[in-house]
Structure formats: structure tokens, C-alpha cells
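Annex B. Sample input.
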Amino acid sequence: MPASVVGRDAELAALSDFLAGIPGGARALVLEGEAGMGKTTLFDACLTEARDVDVRVLVARPAESESELSFAGLGDLLGGTLDVLETLPSAQQRALSRALVLEDEADAPADPRAVGVALQTALRALAESRPTLVAVDDVQWLDAASAGALSFACRRFGEECVGVLLALRSGLPSSVVDDLERSLVDRVATIEVGPLDVTALHRLVQDRLGAVLPRPLLAEVCQASGGNPFYALEIVRTLQRRGASVEAGQPLPVPDSLHDLLDERLGALPTDCRDFLLAAAAHAHPTIAITEAATHVDAEAGLSPALEAGIVELDGPRIRFTHPLLAACAYEAADRKRRSVIHVRLSEILEDPEARAWQLAAATDERDETVAAALEEAAHRARARGAPRPAALLLDRAHELTPTTNTDDAVRRAIDAAYLHYEAGDSVRAEERLRAVVARLGPGSERARALVRLARVRMYEALGDGADLFRSAIDEAGAEPETSAAAHEGFATCLWQLYERLETAVEHAKKAVDLALEVGDEALAGEALNTCAMAELLLGLDSASTTMARASALQPASERRRVLSQPRWFPEFRLWTGAFEAAESELHEMLHRAAEIGDESSPPYLIACLGRVDCELGLLESALERTIEAQEAAKQAGQKAILAFSLALESLVHARTGESRPAHATADRSLALVRETGDRQSELTASWALGQLELAQGHAEAARERLSVIYGLVRSESIGEPGAVPFVVDYVEALTDLGRSDEAGAVLDWFEGNAQRLGRDAALANCGRCRGLLAGQAGDVDGAIAAFKEALELHARVRLPLDHGRTLLALGAAQRRAKRRREARETLERALAVFEEIGAALWAERAHAELKRISGRAATPGALTPAEERVAALVVEGKTNREVAAALFLSDRTVEGHLARIFGKLGIRHRTELPGALQTRGIDLSNTGDSPVSADSSAP
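Annex B, continued. Sample output.
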């Protein structure tokens, strides 16, 4: 199915299954949904696939204006296959020719039954030579004569290779659909084409309009459009044209293209009813009683006509518009003065302070400190309940209504509103507002506060810019301790993320801690301790753990702060120390917490980190999905640095699956962004991906060139945490392969020394492999084998399948060189099983190549690898491919590959033959484990 169809994976799969079933007999599929929901898009996608799989397509697209024309739709269906008429009996040929106006016999109208018989015969003739799809879009407009003929023909189909695809608008009748449901019964299916979610709408808007909306605005577009893709696109076009955005108390604009349709429905209502609907649209949770009180219109007069017209519906006392755009149109069509009156009345009636504030925000354009203060208080309430976007809009309005004489209040509200937009995931808007504030202020503590907030936003675009802004804020804050503390903390954060001047970062973080505690701001002190711990961790200092504990103790004061500012979370620590399962659990908890408090600024990085975890755990397909998800989230949040990091991780996944072209493409995109963002983690990861890819391909010199640059950077900045620089072992291996043993040994001594001092098992296991490679390079095969076996003991403590497989591969190669062929074969087959299970194609090829180099008696023809045995055992139990994949932490595609090889080895063609083939070969799977890499599989 076309890749341009977004958010419809389930529907596309159902369409593919429908097409695949046509050769098995007549069947029908109905696509049903409201106008603009995407029925035609799916309809066209099905036609495209049908042609690709050599299914003949007969298509009609009737219009409402043609519904009175006899046989117009039939003419469209058969227009490209008129030669089939020559195969029909003469009476049927005449009947169909008259219906299609192919004969000049005006006084001889077509016989409907004869036309139906002729159509049935024609379709059968076409289906005999090739499966045929009869497709009608907007079938509700199909003329009665064509509908009758099509229904007559379809009611009589059985084994014919004919499929019928119909797109039907919800709520409108179709005799063809009714007849098919009665005649084909269990061979007709309906797909309800429903609304798209926010993620799918993001992709749609980006693909069709080239626009990336901030996540909160996109959510509002989704709500206003009801998830209808056509309506959503029209709303975004309107926003682009007007340069507008949603503001406090105001709905999104109704697109011009929909005004006529909606105005017609609303314009037919009585005046009192339209006034009643205005009040209902002006309140987020309208009830009958509140709306009556706001309008002084009786519910019978105000509500009944709208209920009869299907514009609203009742849920107990609640009033609901049947589509959000009807509410927007009811509001927009009203006189501006009348809207203000309604808002004032609602502000007097409503009891909830936040709801009352929304009404005040929309009721006046006059500056009023009382109203502004009420809006500010409501914004604090909204933020406390985890709604930063509404809070930002309320504060925006509070700033607009602040009297010009209240300069300090206006500045405070503007700064706080802008930062709330950032927390809500709209970095672009936040930066624009903060720059405007900074430009208006002279040097001093207020400007320093604005600079701190601007720096927080800007560091996700360019760390260097963020660092400069924080530095300026430090200079301007003077003796104001809270702003100064925030500036010192931010400057330290920029430095550690730049991986430079880490000792200076520690100094500034400690200064921030002292200043924050001086003013009793434990939340800020906790964040500064977290930052200090990260810099200490990168430096490889033992004090990092103590600093982390101090930070975590201050968590209670930080529960409402954005997640990445809360001191209890240390995802990098888990990742760098090899605690990947713990990292996964913590990251999921952080995402849950972010959702609870409405933090849209943290998830892009958290999702990217989950991709890194999946990559290390060998779940490469899941890792790829995570990194792409993180990219989309980063685009919506306007976080270029996280986009670069996500692209770098995607490159690493492609490198491990052996996909050279996408690995290079994504790494290049990441490194291009790094030149703007300065994000060092992205640079190291993208360079590592390309270096590891070169190493897997056997290009040691190219790998050395890639990795030597980032190794030099690490040494120049005194980075001592092995887990932060895992590429070093690949650099050592490249040097070893090139025969540069002395240089490799010196690098390894430094790296291994840090790993031993800090107790990093994952790094030590890889160091053991490097020690074995160096011993083998020196001709000490026994020493190499011993080193590899020690490394495998360490691998058993940390689940890192790719590294485990690489050590098995190195051990098997050493055993082969030592003439220990049986052991070598067993070890290499285990390595191959690991690589195949995780989908590391290039490493699997290297394992295959080593196996081929073993002389002597070959393995038994048809012998299954351990990975294949595990898959076979689960299939014999009756599990589906998807269930096998879930049980073994594999992708569906990997399971399919295993089964293809199993079938080939055993000479069978179907899974039902598997038990018998295994029994015939004497293959016993009773002791086969069900884990992809069991804990004891590293034992030599």
C-alpha cells in the first residue's frame, strides 16, 4: 500500500487481505465514514495495490449531480473493457449496448433485468481471465439504474474471482450495500474509517503542507477537527494564511472552505436557538442550566431545534456538539458584542476559578489588573494540575490585560507564559516571546531572569548559544541569588552536554547548589546537584554517586517541575553503567510522569533513550521504531538537538542491522545538525555508528579514521566514564586488525583502567575481548582463548547480545586457529545464532565465513542452529509467527527468516509438516530453551 497513507495501518492491512482473497471467490468490502475522513484515500490505495498485484480494476466515481442519470455509473465501470461485449449472447449484448448508449435506438429503453444479466455475464467473463475488482467511490451517489444492475449481478456471484469495493458516506443509504450484505453475508466486511490520532495528523500535515505544528497546537487542531483529516488540513491552511494561533478563550478558526456548509445548517435555526448555541460553544463544559442562565433563553426554545437538526446531543444535563467545528461556527457567527455579554454572564455564573478566568479572558479587551491577576492565579492552578498549555494561554492574556503602569507584573507574566509554552512543547513560540521580552529590557536582574528562560529553550537548538546566554545571565543577575543559581546551573548543564570543560561545569553546578539552598529553593538545588553528578560521572569521579544521592533526597520539592529537571532521574547513569533493564523501567516511569504533569518538553529525549536501550538489548526493530518516534516528537517540540541525537541512534541501529546506505544517510543528517546544535552525544553516537559499520564490513582503516577523531576529543576533555564512550573498544579492535598493537594496547590500558576502577562489567567484558584479540595478534592463541572465556563470564552478567556474539565469534576463530575444530564449530554456531536472533546481518555473515573455514567433517546436513531450534520448538507447540517473535524478543521478519531456513534444511513447505520432519531427522527439541540468549549461553 502507498506509504503516503498515514495512520491507517490496520485499514491498509484489511484492504490487502481483501485483495488477496479475491481469487478464492466473490467478496465485498465497504469503506464507511463521514465526509473528509479519508475513505477516498484508502479507496485509491486499494486500487493502486490491485493493479500492482495484477487484479483488473473497474472503477466508477459517481457525483451527486449525476445520480439522476441512468446507467452513468455502469458506463464508468465498463468504459475500458467494452470489448467484453463481443463475448456476450446477442440479447445481452443489445441490452448492455442500449444501457451504455452504444446503439442509436431512442425508442427502445434498456430492460433493467436484461442489463443486470448482461453485467453478470460480462463480469464472469472478465474474472475467468483475471481476478477483477469492481470499485465504486461515493456509492451513495450511484444512479438507481446502475445500482440495480450491480446488485442483480453481485447477488448471484459465488466462486467467481470478483471483488467489490465500495466507499459509503456515513448516514446515507445505498441499495448496493444493503443487497451485498444480504447476499454475500459472511463474505462482506465493513471498515469504519474513523478519526486520525494526533501522531497521524502530525505526519499528514507535514507530508501535505510541509508544516510541523507544535504538539499542543496540533492537539487542538485534532480536537477541533474531530480527527477528520480533511477538516484538519483545512484548519491548518487557515492558520497558515491568517498567521494566527489559538488564544485564551477563543476556538480555532473555521476554515473558509467549510463555512458555507456549516453556516447553512446553523442559519436555518431560530434566533433564540443560535443564541443558546453561542453560550454552549463559549463554555468548555456546557449544561442546560448554565446555558439557560447565560442566555435567558428557555431550554425548549433554545435546544430543541438544534437537537432535531443533529447539531447537538445531550449526555444527561451536558450539551455536546456533534462535531467540534459546529461549536466553533456557532461561536464565530455571533456578533462580537453579544459574545462579550455571554462571556461576562458566564464569568458571573461559573464557580470554578479556572473556568471563570477563561470567561474573563474572552470578555474584555480593556487592561484591568483585577482581571489580569485572576487570570494569573488561574494559570497557576492549571499548571499545578498538569496543564501547561492552558496555563500559558491564560498568562498570555493576563500579560495583555496588565495595565501599562504595572511594568514588573507585565514582565513577570510574559516570561512565565513563554516558559510555559516551552514546557507544553512549543519551543518556537517560547523563544519568540522571550526574545521580545529581552529586547525590551535593560541590563539587570529582570533581564537576567528572561535570559535564563531563553537559554533553557535555546540550548535545545544550539548548546553554544545556550551557554552564552547563561553566561550573560550570570553577569547580569548580580546579587539576586535565585536567578544567579539558575544561571550557574544552566551554564553547567550546557558544558557537560558539550562534553567540555567538565571541571568548570562541576564548579558552576556547586555554586548553583549553594545559592539555591541559600534562598531555600530545594527544587533548584536538586536540579543543580543532578547536573553536578552528570559532570562528575563523565569525569569518572567516585563522588558522582554521593552527589546523586544528595540530589535524590531533594525530590519531594520538585514533583511539579518538568521531568528532566527533577533530581531523582538519572537515565544516563543507568545507560552508561550498563544497567539497561533498569534504564528501561526508569524511562517508562519518567514518560508516565511527564504525561501526568503535562510535560511535553521531556518526552523526545526519553523516547530516544528508550531507543538506545532497545538497541543495546538487541531489539533492533523496536529500537528503530523508537528512534523514529523520537524524531517526530523532537520536530513537534522544536528540539533540534534531540532530533540530531535520534538520527544518530537510528544510524547506529542501521549499522547493526547491516544497512549501510541508511546508516550513512542518517548519520550524515545528524552530523549536519550537530554543526548547529553542538550536541556532543549526537556527534559521538553518529561517528560510532559509522565506525562500527566499517568494522563489521572488515574495513579496519576506515573504522580507525572514523573513531580516532572522537577518541581524541574524549582524551582531550579528560572523560573517564567508559559507558559514555563505548566506541573505544571498536577503536582498539580496528587498531589491532591493522597490526598497530602497541597503540591499541595503550588505548586499552587507559579504557580498561577506568572500567576496573569504576566496576563497569559491560566495558570489562569488551576489554576482555580486546585483550584476546591482542594476544591472538601476538601469536598467543592459548592466551587469546583464555581471555575470550573470561570475557564471556563477564558477558553473562550484562545482557548485551551483539557484544556477546562478537566475543563468541572471536573465540570461535581462535579455536579454529588452534585446530580445535569441534569446539570452534560449536562456538561459531552459537555466535551465528545470536547474530541471527537480533538481526545483525554483517556479523552473521562473518560468523558464516568463519564456519566455512573450518576443515574436517562438516556439520550434519540439515542441522538446525540453536536459534532455529528455539523457533522450531515454539512453532511445533502451535504458536503463530507473531507469538514466536514475542516469546523470543524477535521481529516478525526475523522469525520468518528462521522458518524459511528451517523449511529449506528439512525439505518441507508448510509448518504443519514440521513435527514429522523433525521426528524423521531424529531432532529432539525437548530441552530447547525459549529465551533468545540464555544466561548460561556464554559458558564456553
